[in-house]
Design goal:
- The protein has 93 residues and is mainly beta.
- The chain is 0% helix and 58% strand.
């Protein structure tokens, strides 16, 4: 199964506020031979703020990624599209 998650959101109370953008493709598959569920992702996020993703299966949660913004980045780094590549994977026995 492939799922594309696209997001862009800004502060509706601030005129001309920059959007926080992300485009992530999630891939979920079943490895029947080894009795595992595999979860992966790839895509791009903005340079600010922090981003994170987790996968949960049968009550077990695994961290896919946690990404803090580089030191000194702030709302100015929200201009433009998401441009920081992210990729991760986890398996559940």
């Amino acid at each position: 199964m492939l799922l594309l998650v696209h997001g862009e959101a800004g502060d509706p109370h601030v005129r001309l506020a920059a959007n926080i953008d992300y485009d992530i493709h999630f891939i979920v598959s079943v490895d029947v031979d080894n009795s595992r569920v595999l979860v992966g992702l790839f895509g791009k996020v903005d340079e600010f703020p922090a981003f994170e993703a987790y996968a949960n299966f049968n009550g077990v949660t695994k961290t896919l990624f946690q990404l803090s913004p580089p030191t000194g980045n702030d709302v100015v780094n929200l201009l433009g599209l998401a441009n920081v590549p992210v990729a991760a994977a986890a398996s559940f026995p």
